[in-house]
């Protein structure tokens, strides 16, 4: 059964086919994708395939992706999850994205806290990593605030709009987590 998580203001829940329109809207927004390392999504069918892959990835213990919604409102405001999940090595990488109208309201911090708590306590990760564009000051501040440590720079690691970008590698170990 897919885990549903709850915070003071948010519900992190399974992404379902009915969310395809909101996912398409989010991941075709230039502001959202500026530092995401992903091409813009183009069609509902494409998104439905991605949602199906989320379900399959969770069943195979390779990834978990939650939709983020405000309590009392079924519309998604973003996504958060773990990919590159390795039970053997007790690690995964974190990624998240919110619609711009929900930035700077503490929602991402709240969702990250809940996701990393779940990752350490329920999934038994020892390490949670994050790859962040060096220009993404918002994510850098968020990760630092919740205790992630910068480990180094990956030069020209991700492409966005066919342009290579340097990224930082961040990590949080279970023993360092303030959760």
Q: Can you offer a commentary on this structure?
A:
The protein is of the alpha+beta class and 179 residues long. The chain has an eight-stranded mixed β-sheet, sandwiched between helices. β5, α4 and β6 (127-133) form a beta-alpha-beta unit. The relative contact order is 0.16. The protein has five helices and eight strands, in the order ββαααβββαβαββ.
How many separate helices?
5
Order of helices and strands: EEHHHEEEHEHEE
State the total count of DSSP E strands.
8
β-sheet strand percentage: 35-45%
Helicity range of the residues? 25-40%
The whole-angstrom Rg is 15 Å
- Helix- and strand-based class? alpha+beta
Please give the largest β-sheet: 8 strands, mixed
Secondary structure: elements and pairs:
Blueprint: E1 5-6, E2 10-14, H1 20-26, H2 30-33, H3 44-59, E3 64-70, E4 76-86, E5 91-98, H4 107-121, E6 127-133, H5 137-145, E7 149-160, E8 163-173
Parallel strand pairs: 5-6
Antiparallel strand pairs: 1-2, 2-3, 3-4, 4-5, 6-8, 7-8
Helix pairs in contact: 1-3
């Amino acid at each position: 059964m897919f885990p549903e998580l709850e915070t003071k203001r948010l519900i992190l829940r399974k992404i379902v086919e009915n969310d395809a329109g909101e996912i398409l809207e989010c991941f075709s927004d230039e502001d959202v994708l500026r530092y995401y390392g992903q091409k813009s999504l183009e069609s509902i069918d494409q998104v439905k395939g991605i949602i199906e892959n989320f379900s399959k990835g969770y069943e195979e213990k390779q990834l978990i992706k939650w939709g983020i919604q405000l309590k009392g409102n079924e519309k998604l405001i973003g996504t958060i999850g773990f990919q590159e999940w390795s039970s053997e090595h007790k690690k995964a990488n974190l990624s998240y994205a919110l619609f711009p109208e929900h930035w700077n309201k503490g929602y991402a911090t709240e969702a990250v806290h809940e996701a990393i708590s779940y990752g350490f306590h329920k999934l038994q990760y020892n390490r949670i990593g994050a790859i962040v564009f060096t220009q993404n000051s918002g994510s850098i501040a968020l990760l630092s605030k919740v205790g992630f440590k910068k480990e180094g720079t990956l030069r020209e690691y991700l492409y966005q709009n066919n342009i290579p970008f340097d990224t930082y590698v961040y990590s949080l170990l279970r023993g360092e987590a303030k959760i």
